[in-house]
Amino acid sequence: MRGFFVLLFIFVFTQANAGNIPAPDQKQIALNINDVYFKEPLLASENIGFVVNGMLPNSCYSFHSIEVKHPETYRHEVFVYANVKHAVCQSYLRPFTEEGSLGTLQPGRHLVMFLASDGTGYEKSILVQ
Question: The whole model's pTM is what?
Answer without folding.
Answer: 0.76
